[in-house]
């Protein structure tokens, strides 16, 4: 068994290790009261700041021409597989497009669907030169559709003052461009009114 001096030295050394921030006088004061509350000092972890990945600005995207389709790629035949994928996507979205499907249900699904790959025709327009343009939608922006025609011509058709028709499996749907001036990502969350005055 240890002697009293050895025990005292051990306790002093133990308390110094356990309470490194306290001075010797404070430790001796604690010992006189014969009540010791040991404290735990944890090392502060330095938080690593996450670096946010910055995307391109609109100006940089224009300079890099990220959304421009190269002239050699502007061919109708190249995008026919995209149209086939779009048709399958719409069939899945509308649960098969069965003959007994409700037209308003199909219409509401199409209003929120992604139209990249759809074949559309301009049926009405305040500008007669747009009427009759038919092709696959390659890009949809807030105010325009970029359409590739069978003649391999890329047409930029504004949504404003134009009516587009879209046909799939016998269902014909009309898109009133003036009420459709939204980005594709915004349309999916928008609530469209089923009734209302519609004009060019």
Automatic annotation (TrEMBL):
One of its GO terms (cellular component) is ribonuclease MRP complex. GO terms for molecular function: ribonuclease P RNA binding. Pfam families: RNase_P-MRP_p29 (PF01868). It comes from the Eukaryota. SMART domains: POP4 (SM00538). Transmembrane segments: none annotated. One of its GO terms (biological process) is rRNA processing. It is found in: Nucleus, Nucleolus. Keywords: Nucleus, Phosphoprotein, tRNA processing. InterPro entries: RNase_P/MRP_Rpp29-subunit (IPR016848), RNase_P/MRP_Rpp29_sf (IPR036980), Rof/RNase_P-like (IPR023534), Rpp29/RNP1 (IPR002730). Its main location: nucleus. Component of nuclear RNase P and RNase MRP ribonucleoproteins. RNase P consists of a catalytic RNA moiety and 10 different protein chains; POP1, POP4, POP5, POP7, RPP14, RPP21, RPP25, RPP30, RPP38 and RPP40. Within the RNase P complex, POP1, POP7 and RPP25 form the 'finger' subcomplex, POP5, RPP14, RPP40 and homodimeric RPP30 form the 'palm' subcomplex, and RPP21, POP4 and RPP38 form the 'wrist' subcomplex. All subunits of the RNase P complex interact with the catalytic RNA. Several subunits of RNase P are also part of the RNase MRP complex. Belongs to the eukaryotic/archaeal RNase P protein component 1 family. Component of ribonuclease P, a ribonucleoprotein complex that generates mature tRNA molecules by cleaving their 5'-ends. This is Ribonuclease P protein subunit p29. The lineage of its organism: Eukaryota, Metazoa, Chordata, Craniata, Vertebrata.
